[in-house]
Amino acid sequence: MFRTLLFSFLFTFVSIRFISAQQEIDLRDETWWGVMTSVQISENWAVWNDVHFVNDLFFIHRMGFTYHAKRIPLNTTVGYGYLALTAPWSEGALIRSEHRPWMQTVYRLPKKGNFTSSLRFRFDTRFFQDLDRENEELLSSYSVNYRWRFNHGLRYNVGDVFRGRSKFAVSLINEALFISGPGPNGVRHEHRVFCMANFAFGSYTLSAGYIARYINISSERAIFAQGPVFWLNINLNAQRKGSQTIEEYPVDHMY
Fold this sequence. Notes:
11-stranded mixed β-barrel; 12 strands; 7% helix
């Protein structure tokens, strides 16, 4: 487990190694909200639906299908998301559209006592609405970029709380995001760190915590955004009453 912790910290360090001491840092506060659902429809398949909202930033509804492999601790999801985004002149109003086909693969590392750990790769194809900044207008055309996301999640299962009515766990999540593609985008690299407390009540998990984001705009400018996070995760089994027979955690569904 020491190697897993070391990997998590090195993952963060390597991801932000290009931070310049000369960068101008813009500080921002934000609050993240999310409702994530997974409905198991067969032994290996589940339907994914979630919504996320961040004040003055975005709203997303995302859907997909998840396949859980039998012989190895790996699952893959393919889906589509629709986003409403702000524009530079909209004063926080979500007036800009984005269409986002996406896929991800999650691999669970072997458990070590109360610790569980996972590696996640997600690929987003982002078709976002073009802007006429001079005239402050939305255009009917779209540009495309590709976002490559590398995530490491570490979870410690504390045990039963509230007289056995809930299971409590804490999570540390590191994610590095990189942008490529022909479309204009002011963000070349971003790093996110989540610290979460998770309370599971049967099929429902309530999560509350903190997010810190380093957004690398250029060699001269960066954004540091931070604030609270609130998630509700719902895992259901459409085949029968009771919990899912597949293994899914809030970190799998994070935005």
